[in-house]
Amino acid sequence: MARLPADCTSMTDIRQEIDRIDHALMLLFRERWGYIGRAAEIKQGTGMKADIPSRVEEVRNNVRAIATTLGLEPDVYDTIWTGLIRQSIAHEKGILGETDD
Fold this sequence. Notes:
Chorismate Mutase Domain, subunit A; 3 helices; elongated
């Protein structure tokens, strides 16, 4: 059962909660990855490229705004999302048969 940080009374409690959250995050990342694959499938035959700079900028701006609203450091989450975006574009390029010319 999930506990709030203030309810944790030992490092074991803290570590269990961090592990629980990490697992939940990985499930969300897996779900997100499914949408990346589906986006590539939808793009096939439409002439759309894997890398759409305006969308990349939009996603990064969204993440920065959400982080700021939640009191988190936007640069940290922008860095994380930049890596996610880079990997997503590479995955889509593979599905679409795009090369880095």
